[in-house]
Design brief:
With 274 residues, the chain is α/β, with parallel strands linked by helices. Helices cover 41% and strands 16% of the residues.
């Protein structure tokens, strides 16, 4: 039986996919990937991402600004641009990816300001957030908690999650979904695996974050791709001692619920290309 899976975080607009995107799509469909949520690193990517969604109807997408691009690209006008683009196409299902990254950058106040602006956009448009969080869990939780304490709606996903079980609990308490990528399959990823075991089934999502972070047993391949999300599902099934069909069904339902996608989802092999 082919599983029905949703890869909730891809970057198939990157140049590495240009030569063979049709073949990549054929593989994700054969693997049972019925939907993909395409993240956005910066608004300039929007038209390219939209053109991909025109070609592959199972692709929904987001718009936002990655925290590592804030130093060069963030302005008040950028916030207006993100909101305008988010309202320009019904296939926009999230704001992001946004968030905080203090591993590679030190512009903390600027990143927090950009995050808060995108939180505000998501709340006003009633869209979930795709959140990147690296070496910044405490500050991220504080931002989300402050926003909620103001009576504003906050919902979304901690993508490619790598935090500790304690940090995971903070975001679960804030109502966030937790998404695991190929990192959960790595031999030494004990902290990530411990977090995966504790996430309730109704908050669990899977992703590739392709073209990065190829999972075991595809670690030797330089380019990750959506079909490999099946290996994340199998690892979560192993960690939770559940049938992989259960993981597939629940994570697909969760993704549909968070991103407002239709459920039940179509047979991936019956989706026409345009």
């Amino acid at each position: 039986m082919v599983l029905q899976l949703i890869d909730t975080h891809v970057h198939i607009n990157f140049e590495t996919f240009e030569p063979d995107l049709e073949a990549v799509a054929a593989r994700w469909r054969a693997a049972g990937v019925v939907r993909l949520v395409h993240s956005c690193v910066e608004p300039s990517e929007f038209e390219r991402i939209r053109s991909i969604a025109d070609r592959f109807p199972e692709v929904a997408f987001a718009v936002g600004l990655h925290p590592l691009d804030v130093a060069d690209l963030w302005t008040d006008e950028r916030a207006e641009e993100i909101q305008t683009l988010a309202q320009s196409d019904d296939r926009v299902v999230a704001i992001g990816e946004t968030g905080l990254d203090f591993f590679k950058a030190e512009n903390r106040e600027q990143q927090i300001a950009a995050l808060n602006a995108q939180l505000d956009i998501a709340s006003r448009l009633d869209l979930p957030l795709i959140i990147h969080c690296r070496d910044a869990a405490l500050e991220m939780a504080d931002c989300l908690r402050t926003f909620k304490n103001q009576g504003r709606s906050v919902r979304g996903v901690m993508h490619c999650w790598g935090g500790s079980p304690e940090e995971t609990e903070w975001f679960l308490d804030l109502g966030m979904y937790i998404s695991f990528s190929g990192t959960v399959t790595f031999k030494k990823a004990e902290q990530i695996q411990a977090s995966a075991r504790m996430v309730p089934m109704d908050r669990l999502l899977i992703e590739t974050d392709c073209p990065f972070l190829s999972p075991v047993p595809k670690r030797g391949e330089k380019r990750n791709e959506p079909s490999f999300v099946q290996h994340v599902a199998h690892q979560l099934a192993h960690l939770k001692d559940l049938p992989v069909e259960t993981i597939a069904t629940q994570t697909t339902l969760n993704a549909c619920r968070l991103f407002g996608l239709d459920y039940p989802v179509p047979d991936p092999l019956q989706i026409p290309c345009t």
